[in-house]
Amino acid sequence: MKKLNVAVIGTGYIGIVHIEQLLRLPNVELAGVTDKNQALAAEVAERFGIRRVYTSADEILADPAIEVIHNCTPNNLHFTLNKQALLAGKHVLSEKPLALSAAESGELTRLAHQRGLTTGINFCYRYYPVVQDAAARVARGDLGAIYNILGHYLQDWLLYPTDYSWRLDPKMAGASNIVGDLGSHWCDLAQFISGLEITEVMAELRTILPIRKRPKHGAVLTFAAAADAAQEDVPISLDEYGALLLRFENGASGTFTTSQLASGRKCNIDIQVYGAKGALAWNHERSAELWLGHRNEPNQIFFESPILQAESTRRYAKLPSGHPMGYMDAVLNLFGDFYGAIALRQARQSVPYRYPDFEAGHDEMRVLEAAIASRKSGTWAKVD
Hints:
CATH architecture of the largest domain: 2-Layer Sandwich
Structural class: alpha/beta
Helix content: 25-40%
Shape: globular
CATH class of the largest domain: Alpha Beta
CATH superfamily of the largest domain: Dihydrodipicolinate Reductase, domain 2
Number of domains: 2
Radius of gyration: 21 Å
Number of strands: 16
Largest sheet: 9 strands, mixed
Distance between the termini: 43 Å
Number of helices: 10
CATH topology of the largest domain: Dihydrodipicolinate Reductase, domain 2
Strand content: 15-25%
């Protein structure tokens, strides 16, 4: 099996997630890493036995041996690095959001098509086995016409005024913190499971803590505890709370609520889909279970299974029935589809499955821009 030479740009929290899953793939050679913090990159390389620490992203992009880039940098670097990688002929798997505007994400999507390159974006939550099975159930008509899609995504890691992250800095995060981050994941789930596009949005986005304490020296990694160091007051303009009313292409309605100040909630994702014939629901805290709702018979709890799932989704349940998979396995499933797509296209074969590429990232940028427009106007905004 020919291995693809891969490099990871960014070795913070999510970079480590990428690295650990890349090392599990048989058709990948993790050839190098880099980070603005070279000491951190060197430590990560030594920990995982990665042979090379590049001095910069530019050095990676200039290396003809590198065939695939994983972009694990902050939001403000996504567009530039993704574009440079595509222009250098590299396949790209990017963290979300894909860019800071729909104009930028649209440009990346067009460029990838023009260059014939395979792209991906880390909407990993759709890769839990029962989430894949939920989409298959909707597609085969088990729920009938979809009426409503409801849910939330709650965390508490920004609960205190002493909690600070680069995600609260508009120069790095863009025009939104929480809807661009957690909202993009949930909206991708809603569109993936239902097979329906979001067409209109009514949004309330709020900054609940307008002043926070930021470390005077050094950065705080995502989800890391604040260090006992000198701090300074900094004004916050980006959202830590959001509520969206949604309209879908078939006329279905939806509601979504998200907060990073929900005490006790670490990563609580909930999505419920109600149709004319039945319903389903999934919650990240019970990620191996899919609730199935019925009007005239008992409700059911379906547990992930490589035997009982739809034939098209069984390959995502890699363990025997009764053995739950986790977050890292969901990321691995996504990477497996991405690298499988590269191999199929290199063999001049079509890709028989849906996976989140730059088109999916562009979809969520369009929804995000509609939400921001709605917040400014106080009215419904169409997804352009």
